[in-house]
Amino acid sequence: MTETQDTAAGSPAGSPSRRALIGWGGAGLALGAVAAGGAVAATRAGDDVDPAAAEAGGAVAFHGAHQAGIATPVQDRLHFAAFDVKTDDRAEFVRMLKDWTAAARRMTAGHAVGEGAYGGLAEAPPDDTGEALGLKPSRLTLTIGFGPSLFERFDLAGKRPEALVDLPKFPGDNLDRTRTGGDLCIQACADDPQVAVHAIRNLARIGFGKVAIRWSQLGFGKTSSTTPDAQTPRNLMGFKDGTRNIAGTETDRLKKFVWVGDGDGGSDESWMTGGSYLVARRIRMNIETWDRTSLQEQEDVFGRDKGEGAPVGRAKEHDKPFLKAMKPDAHVRLAHPDSNNGITILRRGYSFTDGTDGLGRLDAGLFFLAYQRDVRKGFIPLQRQLSSKDALNEYIQHVGSAVFAVPPGVRDKDDWWGRTLFSEEA
Question: What is the 3-state secondary structure (H, E, C) of the chain?
Fold first, then answer.
């Protein structure tokens, strides 16, 4: 957990669906906890939206130089899933990526997958699972990433970027292997939780036999914003989080700290130009201990006051912090770019509460998501500093971890996720 930045519609059809013809069917994906949806009216908005369009359940453009879901205004809900690859057939895997792209293109526009959830061949499974029928697009974004282990398959070893390193073990890590790693990931963000869950469920179903979910995480309550002048979100500890996070409108900072450039890596890494690198960490908070900690100590731990969010000795949240006025182990002081040779990452995390741990304690915390141009120059040196010195470590523990190369965006209707990596022509 780091503050660092203070640091076409589906229609009924009487003929067999394409999925039935090529064997996409199979048992539906059994999911765990699914949150109830909100919006109920079915409308389609324009191709892109500004933050105010969230109230109208607008659609976010799927095509672009960069994938949506990174610098896009942060939505309220998350369903994140890491997958293991189950096929050794490169052509079959590429076919799945193309099918995923087609499904993602439709779902982000508020349409059903393929021929829809009903009206097709009665003897075959429908193309869409149906739980998002009647719901708005809800600013759904779908973002794909490729993990280090994927490059051990499909003769991709020579295409693995140098920046896609395995994360080292940091002091205090207590990683659960069942919540760590993955050959690839899908990040689904939306303002309606059911829309996000529907997206992951349908991609997993399309991928049946080719991929399987390794682990997943539901998130609520965004803990960072990429929208200028928006109210800074609060984490489950009650503090404003990510006060100076990179905004989606700060093209210069995005170019410098988030997007992979033309000259990054060798010629075999050019497929990543316009992409980014994602670090995902499941951070458990010791909620019960924190809730019995005095207000003064809580504020000392963060280096900000709990009400306004102002740095120590300042009056307003966005006032420039005077780091030396904070305790040496204050989170903000240690995470600030001035304490880390200018290291800056784009945060996009969410709070989570997954019931209790069997001992009466909440299994709750922060699902940390951070995008950067190079993991070696971003998250790793930053976390090394925080894991060894941060006073916040008394109240948190990193229990899940993964890193992914997030390729550039899908340019147009003929493009597909991963084309720059898997297409020889690219």
Answer: CCCCCCCCCCCCCCCCCHHHHHCCCCCCCCCCCCCCCCCCCCCCCCCCCCHHHHHHCCCCCCECCCCCCCCCCCCCEEEEEEEEECCCCHHHHHHHHHHHHHHHHHHHCCCCCCCCCCCCCCCCCCCCCCCCCCCCCCCCEEEEEECHHHHHCCCCHHHCCCCCCCCCCCCCCCCCHHHECCCEEEEEEECCHHHHHHHHHHHHHHCECCEEEEEEEEEEEECCCCCCCCCCCECCCCCECCCCCCCCCCHHHHHHHCCCCCCCCCHHHHHHCCCEEEEEEEEEECHHHHHCCCHHHHHHHHCECCCCCCECCCCCCCCCCCHHHCCCCCHHHHHCHHHCCCCCCEECCEEEEEEECCCCCEEEEEEEEEEECCHHHCHHHHHHHHHHHCHHHHCEEEEEEEEEEECCCECCCCCCCCHHHHCCCC
